[in-house]
Amino acid sequence: MRVMKRLPLCVALLSFALTASTYAQSEPNCLRPSNELLVQVIRDGDLGKASAMVKSGAKLNIQDQCGAIPLHEAIRWNYTDFALELLSAGADPKFPDGGAEALIGTAFMCNPKVASELLKGGVPVNATKWDGETALMEAPSQRCKDGAMVQLLLDAGANPNARTKTGFNPLLAAAMTGDAIGAEKLLKAGADPKAKDNRGHTAEDEACYRGEQGHFRVCQLIREASRKQ
What we know:
Blueprint: H1 9-26, H2 37-43, H3 47-55, H4 70-76, H5 80-88, H6 100-108, H7 112-120, H8 148-155, H9 170-177, H10 180-188, H11 203-208, H12 213-228
Helix pairs in contact: 4-5, 4-6, 5-7, 6-7, 9-10, 9-12, 10-12
């Protein structure tokens, strides 16, 4: 029987280091500036230059080395007017993932103005990311004034009982952030107050054991809704 000889430790370590180095070189460095100028200009906040690039015919539906695109960057930095300019100039609201990232971004930033344009542009209100997250799950994140973001999405047909792969849902989001107005709107739209995530947690669990006034009100709303079921 042939016995394989072990490589000396120094050779094994050198081999591992070379493999790791090769892998690192193949991975994009997302800490470096974007390799797409328009993306980087938006990040820099130079909207005058960005607007000039758009007017001169810069490509809008592009991704940089790390997957960033101009429209998403404008939404992420809450540059409302420029995001609308991009859409008017031909930025595809559904590029590259059907529009989920863009719509979820507007929901997180409490930006119903841009969200409305995305929906008009054909982005499905229940568009999901890879884990099942929808925009309605981010709408309570900042306790948007008057629950405007939650209401906009519900009016467009958002599912109040949508779930991620972990069982997270819009009412759990409102319970965690203490968005009482959002929670009330979700419950009126049919959100299940007793729904559990994969760990067995309910919105009541999340709201009733947190200390802020908003959480207390969400707790009351959920318990009232649960009693009526």
